[in-house]
Design brief:
Helices cover 0% and strands 62% of the residues. It has no helices and eleven strands. The strands form two sheets. Strands 2, 4, 5, 6, 9, 10 and 11 form a seven-stranded mixed beta sheet that branches. A hairpin with a 2-residue loop joins strand 9 and strand 10.
Length: 119
């Protein structure tokens, strides 16, 4: 099992910045990636950014150049630095950890952090 605890988020004006943190604990050795998803009201959850165990990163097009995902292995923590925020970035942001097992892939989720960007 993997436990994820998110911190950060809040209310910010358009053009501002926020940082989300996700501290992981438990069965970490078999994780293949960690990332951030978001879900806006009435919309499906979407991938925002992911960082693999090898350090590769990937971003959804709408946040490229504005968001940065990073990790601190010594703290088992993943961060999402969000700059130049737009009202359309408003959503609940969820930390994700993906584990590979013999039977397949298992996803773990944080509790969610509300990010609200005012215009």
């Amino acid at each position: 099992q993997v436990q994820l605890v998110e911190t950060g988020g809040g209310l910010v004006q358009a053009g501002g910045s926020l940082r989300l943190s996700c501290a992981a604990s438990g069965r970490l050795f078999s994780l293949i990636s960690m990332g951030w998803y978001r879900q806006a009201p009435g919309k499906q959850r979407e991938l925002v950014a992911v960082i693999t165990s090898g350090g590769s990163t990937n971003y959804t097009d709408s946040v490229k150049g504005r968001f940065t995902i990073s990790r601190d292995n010594s703290k088992n923590t993943v961060y999402l630095e969000m700059n130049s925020l737009k009202p359309e970035d408003t959503a609940v942001y969820y930390c994700n950890a993906r584990e590979i097992r013999i039977a397949g892939v298992v996803d773990y989720w944080g509790q969610g952090a509300q990010v609200t960007v005012s215009s």
